[in-house]
TrEMBL record:
Organism of provenance: Shewanella mangrovi
Name of the top EC class for this enzyme: hydrolase
Compartments where found: Cell membrane
Domain Ppx/GppA phosphatase C-terminal: from-to ranges: 310-481
An example Gene Ontology molecular-function term: exopolyphosphatase activity
GO biological process terms on file: polyphosphate catabolic process
Domain Ppx/GppA phosphatase N-terminal, chain residue ranges per copy: 23-302
KW DNA-binding (keyword) present: no
Name this polypeptide is given: Exopolyphosphatase
Length: 496
């Protein structure tokens, strides 16, 4: 690594058994901002023979890829660079030949990591990309090996690396391209033996969250989306997909619109490994993890520690990036929480407290672009930003709240939310609009809310202020009543 203290740009190269990945990023307010991502299908593991010798053709594919990657950051001033190699170079007996040639292209050391270190970096990458639970099980199916990790929130607790990968299994069981029940059975039997070698902790079944990362799992998720309308992976669904592949009969006949063509030839091998994972371990469902090894490498390179609340770090970073007026945002947040605490049980919003807090904190990020229609600018920024820790639906919810905090309501994207979330979104919009309105003018509000009375479809506010002293605010509330009608909420108010 090159470690210059003034450097703020980072380059991570993940030299996997199937693909090489390049990520270029910079540190921005304690968070990583991705500037460029690229991957190339190198299939390094295809060049590994039974004696673990890597052939020249595979080496040349890898070296050509590194030459391309070099062009992406060679003119960047003093970047911090880290090159990490995994299973194929880990087992290749003649890897020094490749490493020496690679150093001539990119003059940085290649870090050939152990299986356990690879597993740790994978978990670290996921930690920085989404919110994890108290007990997590993670599987990453690579080209030459499969890493399985147990973790508790931000810390991995058990690390394992197994000798089964989508490239190596494709060579062993599907080399002729034929997709037969017999080939699947042989592949799953071989994978069963690998998973059986895991320690007893992996068979407890006591996990709050089971995740899969990297290309093979993503391809299977995309197949699930085509057949079932969502990306959830279950054992019955895996069996259905396996039967569909057998029906197609050959790799060239696979018709999956959502899956990249260059990944379809490895789909059967990845599917066999993942099916065995479900069969051997007590798992009911698996979700795709947004992070992986390269993100773990990147965050370690930048020296950014795992955050106990990844979403809060993302919100804090965005607030700083867009120069949010934090004292004012805190006033809006405090008002929103007063309203929320009064209505949460009646309106069934108990699980949405943090979302409303995030929306209140970021409600003015659009002002940095243009104060006019800043709510629309803010909604666009939220909808189109990389927000680690936030799922698609959460990010859309946040965008809808910020986009509807003031002026005329716009529900164009409301139907993109899952049906159960739409009502929650409308009620949260109501609370955020009132919190913003109560803090209008950027002065400490003289209006104290004496009482809040929520009903299923109504909200009554009582203020401890004579009506004639706040005539302008009354007009604001009267205009707001019309907007609340669109939310199916009857807003009423009174003054002492």
């Amino acid at each position: 690594m090159t470690l210059t203290e003034s450097s703020k740009h980072f380059v991570a190269v993940d030299m996997g058994s199937n693909s090489f990945h390049l990520v270029i990023a910079r540190e921005q307010d304690g968070s990583i901002q991705i500037l460029h991502k690229e991957k190339q299908l190198v299939q390094l593991a295809d060049g590994l023979n039974d004696d673990n010798q890597l052939n020249d053709e595979a080496m040349q594919r890898g070296l050509a890829c590194l030459r391309d990657f070099k062009q992406r950051f060679s003119d960047m001033p003093l970047p911090r660079v880290r090159l990490v190699a995994t299973h194929t170079l880990r087992v290749a007996k003649n890897r020094e030949k490749f490493i020496k040639a690679a150093y001539e292209i990119l003059p940085y050391p290649i870090e050939v990591v152990s299986g356990h270190e690879e597993a740790r970096l994978i978990y670290n990458g996921i930690v920085h990309s989404q919110v994890l639970a108290a007990k997590n099980l993670v599987i990453d199916i690579g080209g030459g090996s499969t890493e399985v990790v147990l973790g508790s929130r931000t810390q991995s607790t058990h690390l394992s690396s197994l000798r089964c990968g989508c490239v190596s299994y494709n060579q062993r069981f599907f080399a002729d391209g034929k997709l037969t029940a017999s080939a699947f059975k042989q592949a799953m039997t071989a994978a069963d033996k690998q998973f059986a070698s895991l320690s007893k902790e992996y068979f407890s079944g006591e996990w709050d969250l089971t995740l899969g990362s990297s290309g093979s799992v993503k391809a299977i998720c995309e197949a699930m989306l085509q057949f079932h309308g969502d990306e959830l992976i279950t054992l019955p669904r895996l069996k259905q997909l396996r039967q569909q592949l057998i029906n197609w009969g050959h790799i060239d006949n696979i018709a999956l619109d959502n899956v990249e063509k260059k990944r379809t030839h490895l789909l059967a091998a990845g599917l066999a490994i993942l099916t065995s994972f479900f069969r051997r371990l007590p798992i009911t469902e698996l979700h795709f993890a947004t992070g992986a090894l390269r993100e773990g490498v990147l965050y370690e390179l930048a020296g950014i520690e795992a955050y106990s609340d990844i979403r809060q770090r993302t919100v804090d970073s965005m607030a700083q990036l867009y120069h949010v007026d934090r004292p004012h945002a805190e006033k809006v947040r405090a008002t929103a929480m007063t309203l929320f605490n009064a209505v949460a049980e009646n309106w069934q919003l108990q699980h949405w407290k943090r979302t409303l807090e995030y929306a209140a904190t970021l409600h003015e990020i659009g002002i940095h672009i243009n104060s006019r229609a800043h709510h629309k600018h803010g909604a666009y920024v939220i909808a189109n930003s990389d927000m680690p820790g936030f799922g698609e639906q959460q990010q859309l919810m946040l965008s809808l709240l910020i986009g509807n905090q003031r002026k005329k309501l716009d529900f164009e994207r409301l139907e993109e939310l899952d049906a159960p979330l739409q009502l929650a979104a409308q009620r949260l919009i109501c609370l955020l609009r009132l919190a913003v309105l109560l803090n209008l003018g950027r002065i400490s509000s003289r209006l104290a809310i004496a009482n809040i009375v929520p009903q299923a479809q109504s909200l009554k506010l009582c203020f401890s202020e004579p009506r004639h002293r706040v005539s302008l605010f009354v007009k604001d509330l009267q205009r707001e009543q019309k907007q609340m009608d669109s939310l199916s909420i009857a807003l009423s108010f009174s003054f002492i």
